[in-house]
Structures are given as structure tokens and as C-alpha cells.
Amino acid sequence: MGGLRRALPFLSVLLVGLALLAVAGYFLLTHTTNKWFEADLALRSRLAVVSARQSLKRNWGGDHAKLAETLADITRDERIMSAAACTEAGERLAATSSYPAEFSCHSVLERMREEAARGADSWSMNPDLPSGRVHLSVTLVGDTEESRGAVILVHDLSYLSRREATTRNLLLLAFFVLSVGASLVTLVAVRFAWEGWTTELRRALTGGGPTEFQPLVRDVRALAERLASEQEREARGGLWSPARLRATLTQYLQGERVVILANRAPYIHERGDDGVQVLHPASGLVTALEPVMRACSGVWVAHGSGSADRETVDAHDCVLVPPGEESYSLRRVWLSEAEEQGYYYGFANEGLWPLCHVAHTRPDFRAEDYDHYVAVNRRFAAAVCEEVDSDDPIVLVQDYHFALAPRMIRERLPRATIITFWHIPWPNAERFGICPWRDELISGLLGSSILGFHTQQHCNNFIDSVDAFVESRIDREANAVVQGARRTVVRPYPVSIEWPVHWLGDVPPVAECRAQVRRDLGLADDALLGVGVDRLDYTKGIEERLAAVDQVFARHPELRGRFTFVQIAAPSRTKIAKYRALSDRVEAAVADINARWSSGGYRPVVLLRSHHEPAEVFRTYRAAEVCYVSSLHDGMNLVAKEFVAARDDERGVLVLSQFTGAARDLTEALIVNPYDLRQASDALASALRMPAEEQAERMRSMRRLVSEFNVYRWAGRMLVDAAELRRRERVSGRLATPSGRIAREGA
Ligand code: F6P
After folding, report:
1. Are 546 and 642 a contacting pair, CB within 8 Å?
2. Could you tell me which residues come within 8 angstroms of residue 694 by beta carbon, excluding any fewer than 6 positions away?
3. Which segments of 583-679 are extended strands (E)?
4. pLDDT of 149
5. CA of 604 to the centre of ligand 1 (A)
6. What's the longest Cα–Cα distance across the chain?
7. Which of 127, 162, 197 is the endpoint of a domain?
8. 357 CB within 6 A, ligand 1
9. What are the 10-residue block averages of pLDDT along the chain, 747 residues in total?
10. CA atoms in the 13 A half-sphere facing the CB of 294
11. Which domain range does residue 35 map to?
């Protein structure tokens, strides 16, 4: 189809040219042959009249019946239809029976004289009769005054029309055959030329050796680099931004689009009472990656889990997002209930999740779940391979749902650059070793070009696990694992959030948020507000958090009746019994605290157990005096960073578990051990008492850090590292070719 589109301009010019040639050829041919035929007829007429000269002479002045017989003899020639003998004065002496009345001797000789006056030595005409076209020729006869006159012969020209029609048909046929042939030749030529050009161009762009395009590519690349570095220079004055990330893609990776593989989709279409609604799931992964995709464009491959997801995709299971400002494509992959149960709830969330988090929940490993995990990884890997647009794409594989996918993608696309990011902690080798499929998981991940974790500690744990369980060489200097010709670089890339957060555009300023939230929750205007925002998950330490709040009231009586803690808890993985049990325990703990410390209309704890859209969450961050993140173990925890981003008033205190990745960056938070209830409750109390200047100083410093180390920088660093890997692979690949060897020998 594309080939036809490309060839269409050539074809149109070619066909119009051929048609013009055919029309011109037709006119030229008929004109020339007609002229020949006329000359031929004139000659034949003269010959016929000359050969009957004696008989004409004899009967001219006498027997007109004999003269008519002579004329009839002349018309025996099959092409001469009729004849007439006329005197010089234009009187008809005799004529054959079929001589047309339209051509009187007088009128014909008059015309002849006019022509003779113009210097013409012969005369003829081709008028149309109802019976068809004819040709008239006039031959002068007689040498005495009495015998002078003219013989008019009428020739049948219908055969000429038939010949013209045959010529026209032959020319039309030739035009048709030539057109079809030329079109085919053009199409084939365009296709080969295009393929040749694109291969050459691609080779030139990827530095695959000398090509005809090199001078052009050099110019284009220089221009792109100049534009990119101008953009980057502009952006460097400030922070990493979508523009700078885009510029990085252009400068280092020639603007290649990315394909993301992540289980959770950034947009979920749910059918509700008011029709189809778009939901933004509560997920750190989505918080981090969605802005990156907006900036880079490309495809996000994810599980289609919403009740209206199927209704909103096209024939290829894709939908353009974000709704209303479409900039990338979301490809949904459908799972059966059994697949979702085994792969997502079973192996990923009852096996790997508790295995990787030190939160005292026993992992459950079932072979049937693992089988589903393998099959689903394969399905998603195939979907990724369908979405790429080259044989060396950049694929970003996300999280513990897809430990096997990197190798599966690598098997199908050996030249792909696969960047895998593990969003949760990686446990020490001893702990990881309890997984029955530890070797398979590790070697699946080693299909990646780059494997990222939040912290150096998690990188070390992974490398120790490789060392303990799979055959490989570990390059400790370069933090890489080498298996045969393949190398996986293992590096820390602490994930972050977008800066500025686009959701804040829909959220009112702090004073208004404070007033709104206090009004909505029925709190006093001067109530002190604490907030926790999580998925309802046992790793988040929600029970420990509530226990710490309880201790605030027990140990700091002046806060009773003044302090209210709002827990936003998004229901999560509710098909798993342990999550349902947690939800019940949290509900009971809230009831317990409220029973102990409420008075009148005052509620010490408000539990909001439902999905909240991001704008609502940011409104609550802005309204709070303190945010408590109490995870028992967390790869990063982006709630901590979101709270900081929300507080453009430089107020509010973050109390943060030491067991989160975020605690390494946000050192101005009040860092606590969530198991130590005395320490945590004192931290909450001192947060509520903290002077405004100290709050501002801490918040300013954390805002500086989060703004600088934002998610565009996170993605940008991985992409720059990927570009460096690609460059090295290209160079070493080139050196391995015969031309590379010559280049080296010549060097
Ligand atoms: O922490 C890793 C992570 O993938 C987060 O991005 C997200 O909060 C959670 O795990 C996954 O949640 P879900 O199972 O709802 O996709």
C-alpha cells in the first residue's frame, strides 16, 4: 500500500504521458495514411479514365448510351462506386445509375475551377453521404472544343473508416499494454529503490558502514544535534523536563520511540452507573512512567483489566492516550480469569511480592501459578515484539510481573536494547534462594541490556544472587553480569515523580485546600491534620501507623481533640485473602482508636477506604500538617515525593520510614523506624509542633532535591546509558566484520 502511494506521482505522470503519445500518434498516423490514400485514389482515377480514353472520345459528342456504358466499365473497379461525364459548361452528358444527385456537374466543376485558380493541379473532396464517406476525383478529358469536359469518379471510402477504427483500436490496445507494463515496472522499481534507500539510510543512521547517504546523514545529524543541544542548553539552565528528555532521545538515540511493558495500565476504562469512566490507578509505577511516556511517545503494553477496556480499543487492541491530549498508544493485552489468578494474584503477588519485601508475610509458591506466569510473560513479550518498529528497538520492561520477559524478547529481537526496572526491593541471596524458580527468574532478567533497581543495596543483592545461583562472569568494576557474548549492566536509578506535577494544575492553593478538606471531613477550622496515602497493602505498615497515632494520643494528651489522622487507602489485590484480612484489621484498628479517643463530634482517625483520583489526593496533601509514610519495606515510595511536590507553600512535615528507598534521598524528613511506636509517635507530635521556619527549611531542601532528581532525569539517565551501550555494541559489531578488520589494520 505504502509502495503504491509512493509510486502514484510517477505513475500519474507516466500514464498521462503515454495517453498524450497515443492520441498524437493516432492523429499523425491517420492524417498521413489519408494523404497517401488520396494520392493513390487520384492516380487510380487518372489511370481508369486514361485507359477508357478511346471509348470516351468516340462517344463524347454522339451516343450518350454508349458513353454511359463506358462509364459503367470504369466503375467495375471495386472501389469506384459511380461516374459521370460532364461538358466544360457543366452539363451532364451521362452517368452511372448510382451516381449521387448531390454532386451535379456544375457544382463539382465550379469547385474544381476555384482550386485550379489557387494553383492546385488536381482536385478531390471527401464528403459524407448517408451511405458513408466518399471521395470525388475529377479528370479532364478531350483536346477539341466539342470533346472537352471532365469525368467525375466517386470512390467508396468506407474501407478507410474501417482502417482508421482498426488503427485506433490497435493504438488503444498498445496504450493499455504499455500502461500496465510501465506501471508494474515502476512499482517494482520504486519498491526496490525504496528498500535500497531505506536500508542505506538506516545503515547510514546507525553508523553501519559507508553509504551514499553519508554526507546527507552527516548534515541532518549535525542539525539534529545542534537543535538538541540548543534545547538541552535551554533546559539545563533549569531542571530535567519533558523537553530535555525529548532532546536526550533525539541527541543520543536519534529520537527513537520507546515501548514500555508494564502490567498496570496508566488509564483504566470502567463501566459505572454514569457510563464509561477513565480511572488513574493508584500505582507508583504509573506515577513515574506516565509522564515519561507523555514526553517520549511510543507504546505502553499493559493488561486490559477495566470492565470497559475492550469497548475503547481499536482493532489492534490499542487506544490513544491521555484522553483529550493523545500523545502515545496504550496496547491492551487480555487475560483470562485463570491467567490473571495464576500470573498476577498467584505468582507475582503471593509469591514474588512477599519474597522481595521484608514484611513478615510468607511467600506462597505454586507450580500452577508459575506455569501461568511463564505463559503470560510469553504473551506480553509477543505483544511487545508486535509493537516495535525496528529490529533494534528500545524496550522498557517494568517490575516483578515480567522477570522472564526480557529473555523472551531478546530471543525474538537479539539486537533490542532492553532496559528492565525492578520497582520493588531485591532481597539478599539467601532469602531470594527460597524461590523454587530462582534460576529461571535470574536468567530471564539477564536478557536485559540494563537492569535497574532503586538503590545500590538492591543491585548488590541481585549480583550476589547471580553469583550464588547462575553460571556467569561478574564484572564488579563495571557492575555487570556477563554470559557468553551478552552483558547486563546492573545499576541504581532511584525513581521519582514528574516536576512540576501536572495534577496540581487542578488543585486550589493551600489555604483553600485546608478549608475545603476540614469542611468535607467535618473538622474544626484549626484542627491539626495528618495524612497517609497508600494502597491497602501489608508492606505499607498501615497497622503500625495507626498504632503510632494511638500512641500520639496516649503520650501527648494536648493533641487529643485537636489532631485528626486521615488514611486514604485504595483497595488493592482484594482477591488475595491476606489483603482482605489486612483490610479488616485496619478497619478494626481505626474503630478501636476512635472508640478510645473520640469525644463529642471529634474523630481522631478517618479511614477513606476507596479509590481516590490524583487531584483529590493532592488536595489532601496540601491540607495536611504532617504526612506519615510508614512502609515496613518499600523500593522507593513516591507518596513521600508527591507530598513534597504538593507543598509549594513550604510548610508541612514528612515523617518517613527508614525502610523506604525515599529515606536515602529525603534526609530532611523526620526519619523513623515504624516498628518503634514511641519514636514514631514522638516524631508525629514534634512534626505538629515544628516552627514554621524549620518546616520551610526542611521542605525547601526536599523540594530542591525532588525537583532536580525528577522522573525525567531518572528516564533520561537510563536512556543515555542505553545509548552508550548501543554505541559500544555498534562499534564492537563493526570491528567484528571483515570491513572492520580492514579498518583496524589500516589504522
Ligand atoms: O511498587 C511496585 C508497584 O508496581 C507499584 O508501582 C505499585 O504501587 C504496585 O507495585 C503495583 O500495584 P498493582 O498490583 O495494583 O499494580
Report:
1. no
2. none
3. 605-608, 626-629, 653-657, 670-672
4. 86
5. 29
6. 157
7. 162
8. no
9. 60 77 79 76 78 80 82 82 87 86 85 74 63 79 78 81 76 79 75 66 56 60 55 62 90 85 98 94 95 94 98 97 96 98 98 98 98 98 97 96 98 97 98 98 98 98 98 96 96 98 97 98 97 98 98 98 98 98 98 97 97 97 98 98 98 98 98 98 98 98 98 96 90 52 29
10. 20
11. 2-162
Domain CATH code at residue 662: 3.40.50.2000
**Ligand 1 atom 12: the closest Cα is on which residue?**
283
d(CA 238, CA 261): 30
| Residue 84: partners with Cβ closer than 8 Å, 6 or more residues away | 71, 92, 94, 95, 96, 99, 103, 105, 151, 152
Residue 423, ligand 1, Cβ within 6 A? yes
* Ligand 1 mutation target, pool 260, 261, 263, 264, most atoms within 8 A of CB: 264
Atom of ligand 1 nearest to the CA of 353: 10
Tell me, using a 6 A CB cutoff, whether residue 264 lines ligand 1: yes
Q: Is the CB of 424 under 6 A from ligand 1?
A: yes
**434 and 553 fall within a common domain:** no
Answer yes or no: is 175 within a domain. no
H helices of 479-570, in order, are 510-521, 542-555
**Domain annotation covers residue 171:** no
Query: Does residue 605 sit in the same domain as residue 679?
Result: yes
Spell out the residues 6+ positions from residue 268 whose beta carbon is closer than 8 angstroms to its own: 278, 279, 280, 281, 305, 306, 309
Q: Structural domain tally of the chain? A: 3
**402 is a domain residue:** yes
**Does the residue 352 lie in any domain?**
no
Q: What does each C-alpha distance from 586 to 68, 579, 673 come to in angstroms?
A: 131, 10, 20
- Pair 532, 479 in one domain: no
The verdict on the CB of residue 265 being under 6 Å from ligand 1 is no
